[in-house]
Amino acid sequence: MKTFPENFLWGGAVSANQCEGAYNEDGKGLSVQDVLPHGLRGERTEGPTADNLKLEAIDFYHNYKEDIRLFAEMGFKVFRTSIAWSRIFPEGDEETPNEKGLEFYDRLFDECLKYGIEPLVTISHYETPLGLAEKYDGWRSRKLIGFFERYCRTVFTRYKDKVKYWLTFNEINSLLHAPFMSGGIKTPAEQLTEQDLYQAMHHELVASAMAVKLGHELMPSAKIGCMILGITVYPLTPDPDDMIATMEKDRETLLFADIHARGTYPKYLLNYFEDHKIEICMEPEDGEILKNTVDFISFSYYSSVCATTHTELGEPTGGNLSRGYKNPYLKATAWGWQIDPKGLRYTLNRLYDRYQLPLFIVENGIGAEDQLVTLENGEKTVLDDYRIDYLRQHLIQVREAIRDGVEIMGYTSWGCIDLVSASTAEMRKRYGYIYVDRGDDGTGSLRRYRKKSFWWYRDIIESNGVNL
Q1: Which end of the chain is more exposed for a tag (fewer CB within 10 A), N or C?
Q2: Do the beta carbons of residue 229 and residue 263 sit within 8 Å?
Q3: How many other C-beta atoms lie within 10 A of the C-beta of residue 444?
Q4: What is the Cα–Cα distance from 133 to 114, expressed in whole angstroms?
Q5: What is the rounded average pLDDT for all residues in the chain?
Q6: Distance (Å, rounded) from C-alpha 458 to C-alpha 58?
Q7: How far apart are the C-alpha atoms of 33 and 70, rounded to whole Å?
Q8: How far from each other are the two terminal CA atoms of the chain, in whole angstroms?
Q9: CA 419 to CA 142: how far, in whole Å?
Q10: To which protein family does this belong (predicted)?
Q11: Annotated catalytic, 99?
Q12: Could you tell me which residues come within 8 angstroms of residue 221 by beta carbon, excluding any fewer than 6 positions away?
């Protein structure tokens, strides 16, 4: 039976803004996250406020050596993290980078490599410098392409001998749903038109392709991928109209992968622009830049939704940024995200059939309210069998997709150490194999404790998935 390949990259994933803390240390500037204390759907504040857990987060900035050692104990082959753009360019538009910020990531990547862990680095993970939002309205301005190129050139040059795997923008399709968090667009979302959003999207896509071009020039052996928010959609009924509705909702996600993988705008998107009177302002060189296509496609996968034209039959549901209707055959998490392991196999096959490019699952996991307990031997842990079951069922479907013939590079489960939730800005919504003692009220020792899933995942990695 085919199982996971020998070079499969097992690991976990975090983002800088959800774990690092140290929001104003060593020359770091503010990012959009520093004024979003209540998560995805909360209002921004004028500046950092005491109720923003991300300002300290789990203090990975000062505890990264201990945390990387714990990842190594689990046997990680890869660790996905992001660079906080405003650590390198505090306002975003400086000509000279912040050396202390660069030095931190030198230390972090060196610590990973010491244990044989490959860094997988997201260049922009919902961390647009606040200065770029305030001065330029974020990615609505074409000027950000130049600032992003300078940032990419800086980190590629600095870390080219330490980082082999790069992602350009985290969940790039989220720009259409969360313009401030995803794209640093200061203009209130309700005032933005589709024209505004798709123009900003174009700027990001050009910047992403430019990063691929630059990365291949500076790091010939590196692999550079895109990252999309994976939204798997089923028709709620067999009505052909529901199939068309599903196709159209799918394309809201796939258009980003289409452009990254094929290097051109798909005809269905150009038709949509024509029908909705959207005129993208493109420079003459943009078409050639977009032809710099990615080496692989990565995506997040948490849940699935249904699409329907029979709205009276459906009950609305959704995940982080996905919206649709409940599937009556699926259960849901405490936060209402429907659990669909087989949807991951379906998604992997569908993406591979469409692009014939290697795939990388860079986010997958279950947010839950964990309870720290003390065992008879005095050890503190979390008996998170629910997390083990969730991950096992999804990894079984990854194995099935490999048997189907899908080329999969690796799997980094989300929030491998507890961190601040992106969607709700809570600590109580935990994903990790490692419990961090911090509460929603900001109290706690920040001590780390291995959960039951820690030992389970160690066994899965050690056996290369045989013990699933």
Answers
A1: N
A2: no
A3: 13
A4: 37
A5: 96
A6: 22
A7: 27
A8: 13
A9: 33
A10: Belongs to the glycosyl hydrolase 1 family.
A11: no
A12: 164
Per residue in 245-289, pLDDT (tens digit) is 999 999 999 999 999 999 999 999 999 999 999 999 999 999 999
Measure the CA–CA gap between 130 and 348, rounded to whole angstroms.
Answer: 35
> Which domains are present in the chain?
9-462 (3.20.20.80)
Q: What is the length of the chain?
A: 468
Q: Which two tokens stand for residue 155?
A: 């980190």
Decide: residue 288, CB within 10 A, 0-12 exposed, 13-18 middle, 19+ buried: exposed
| Alpha-carbon span 253 to 260, nearest angstrom | 12
3-state SS assignment for residue 271:
helix
Under 8 Å between Cβ of 218 and 157: yes
Say how many CA atoms lie within 13 Å of 211 toward its Cβ: 32
Q: pLDDT of 240-250, one tens digit each?
A: 999 999 999 99
Question: What percentage of the chain exceeds 70 in pLDDT?
Answer: 99
Pull the structure tokens for residue 345: 């196999």
Distance CA 107, CA 370 (A): 31
Q: Which of 363, 369, 379, 400 is catalytic?
A: 363
